[in-house]
Design goal:
Elements lengths: L1 H11 L8 H27 L5 E5 H18 L3 E4 L7 E5 H18 L5 E8 L3 E7 L30 H11 L3 E7 L3 E9 L8
Helix pairs in contact: 1-2, 2-4, 2-5, 3-4, 4-5
């Protein structure tokens, strides 16, 4: 907040343009503030077991987070690829928490993916399950089991910005919605984070 305020004051003097480095500082500060606020709200809801379950299509969540995620990807010098989702695939879950889980996985990918590469957001479904995947191009996970990433305060690179709570919150958010989260290493390429939820039975003919 303090950095954003200082950057705004500099911009207000008219001596620098919003498209320069000061504007970039303001953008990064506001993005960090937004991420912290969203994560904190989701964590409070999880810790106090505040849940508001409803039935909705998984494609709706991906459509909701994609526009802001695309802007954030571009700000990091990355591309976001959104793959087709089975719009008939529906879940019974807390939508704000599920949305926060997807947003946190994307933010994690943007943080660690190598410049100039692509983060992929995809949705898929089987007869019984709905899956949301975020694939990055971080170069592969460091030594150690992938499950360690979901422990609080664990960070997987030399970049120690943030609190190390994002992936732990994703695990909590998946579990309170009767789901599961896992990470799969793609050596020398990246990794794939997969969130799986029970799929609601479809309507006749779907």
């Amino acid at each position: 907040m303090g950095t954003a305020t200082l950057a705004f004051e500099v911009l207000r003097t008219g001596g620098v343009g919003v498209g320069g480095s000061t504007g970039g500082v303001l953008q990064r500060s506001l993005s960090g503030l937004r991420d912290l606020t969203n994560r904190s709200l989701a964590e409070v809801r999880l810790r106090h077991d505040v849940r508001d379950r409803s039935q909705f299509g998984i494609g709706e969540v991906i459509t909701e987070v994609a526009p802001a995620a695309t802007l954030e990807a571009h700000a990091h010098g990355l591309s976001l690829k959104v793959e087709a989702v089975d719009v008939a695939a529906r879940v019974d879950a807390d939508r704000p928490i599920l949305t926060a889980v997807v947003a946190n996985l994307l933010q994690n990918a943007f943080k660690f993916t190598r410049p100039g590469t692509t983060v992929t957001l995809r949705g898929a479904a089987t007869t019984d399950l709905v899956l949301i995947e975020v694939e990055d191009e971080c170069g592969g996970l460091p030594d150690g089991t992938a499950d360690d990433l979901f422990q609080p305060f664990v960070q997987r690179s030399a970049d120690r910005t943030g609190l190390g709570l994002g992936l732990a919150m994703c695990r909590w958010g998946a579990e309170v919605n009767d789901g599961h989260i896992s990470a799969r290493n793609l050596p020398d390429h990246g990794c794939v984070f997969t969130v799986t939820f029970p799929r609601l039975p479809g309507l006749a003919g779907h």
